[in-house]
Amino acid sequence: MVGKRTVYLMLAVIIAATLLAAYGLLGKGKAAPAVHMIMYGNTFSYEAQADFNNESFWDNYPYWVLLSRNKSVQPGFLLKTGNGATATFKDILTSGDSLFFRYQREGLNDSTLNTILKIIVQSNATVSIITDRSAIRQLEKFDGFAKLKEHIYTTEVMLPLRIDHSGLPYFFRIDGYFKVQDILVPREAVPEVILKYLHLISPS
Question: Which CATH number fits domain 71-201: 3.40.50.720, 3.40.50.10790, 3.40.30.10, 3.40.225.10?
Answer without folding.
Answer: 3.40.30.10
